[in-house]
From TrEMBL:
This is Copia protein. Transmembrane segments: none annotated. Residues 2-146 form the Reverse transcriptase Ty1/copia-type domain. InterPro entries: DNA/RNA_pol_sf, Rev_trsase/Diguanyl_cyclase, RVT_2. Coiled coil: none annotated. GO terms for biological process: DNA biosynthetic process.
């Protein structure tokens, strides 16, 4: 039996570390009146072209340091033994056999990120998930009803 739990990384893009020099004007309310004064960005911000890439690099590094291997077939899938982790931007799904395994993964993630536990998976990427007796049922009934 697998347990499948859903977590969220709060403000995920802000954890990305920029590899290039990038400057921005000061936001309104922070400037000293001199329009030539700019700020050098060290960390990523939402809205930057490279925000998704640098966040992905950051979570990839974190998971690999936890001895997870990235799948060559799906870059959003990581495995370590029988544990699977799926990532979609800041949403993380962990499938494992025990609550202890899950808690140890979340504990390690919390060393680097603000993690919000959303509990057993119920909805992910437009798919409703329901746990049955020894199985899971996936449904896109609401999506079908819209069309």
């Amino acid at each position: 039996q697998m347990i499948v739990r859903h977590t969220d990384i709060r403000t995920a893009y802000l954890y990305g570390e920029l590899q290039e020099e990038l400057y921005m004007r000061q936001p309104p309310g922070y400037s000293n009146g001199d329009p030539s004064v700019v700020c050098r960005l060290v960390k990523s911000l939402y809205g930057l072209k490279q925000a998704a890439r640098v966040w992905n690099n950051r979570i990839d590094t974190a998971l690999k340091s936890m001895e997870f291997t990235r799948s060559s077939a799906d870059q959003c899938l990581y495995t370590r033994g029988t544990i699977c982790i799926l990532i979609y931007v800041d949403d993380i799904v962990v499938a494992c056999h025990t609550s202890e395994e899950y808690e140890s993964i979340v504990k390690l993630l919390r060393q680097s990120f603000k993690v919000v536990e959303l509990g057993d998976i119920k909805f992910f990427l437009g798919i409703h998930v329901r746990k049955g007796d020894g199985h899971y049922v996936l449904s896109q009934k609401s999506y079908i009803s819209k069309t």
